[in-house]
Amino acid sequence: MELRKEYPRPDELSSSHCEGYFARALLRYTYSLRRNVNEPEERAAVLVPTGLWRIAVGALALVAVAGVAMAVWLGTRPVVTGAPIATELTWTLGPGASGYEANERFILRGDTAQVDSLAYATSNILLGDSAVQVRAAQTSGPDDAGYGMVVRYRAPDEYVTLFIGADGYMAVGQMSGGVWRWRVPWQQWPHIRRGPAENLLRAECRADLCRFFVNGEFAFEVDSLATEGRIGPAVWQPTSTNEVSAAFRDWRLWSQ
What's the rounded Cα separation, in Å, for the pair 134 and 248? Predict the structure, then answer.
């Protein structure tokens, strides 16, 4: 004999039928909830596919790399942490140098009688931990000449100088104990504006170390320097055939 479960037609449903039907439905729903609670691993497998974990790990790796890159970038940017130093600068010319004020610029000239040498002027204030920047441009001389700034000047035999050239080269030289040496030999630098264009030069000095920037880009740092000194403009005279001169304006100083 075939056994079949007979379901009443809708018009034959009584209240007892409806109560039994909803009771069974409630039991099935309660059982499904209990089963999901007791099997969290199965739910996790369904809700978080394996591919999603790979995407999440990749995103975290990208964030970490971006953070490191940002830290490196910030470490090579000029940093101003102190108050501006408000003072009117006056200049004392060094050996072989001549200069004059014109149109709010100081024009410094080298001496053609002194080949492969520098001419400079120094300020009237002594600076310790500080930052200094100036806008400068070469106004005469060959492209392989140089112009820049003197920092940590203590005496004619103790200072350091940043030079750039109209040909896109730059260097850092130091006079120590009366002996001149190139701390950074002349080399090309892509951030220099060539020819007669104006460049923004900057030095940040703390203790015995100075960091140099050209047009906002970190270039070099040198250590084993005097811990205080004067600042000033400078030019490098490579030959005796053409006088080298440069114009300097908008000097700014900060304590560090």
Answer: 7
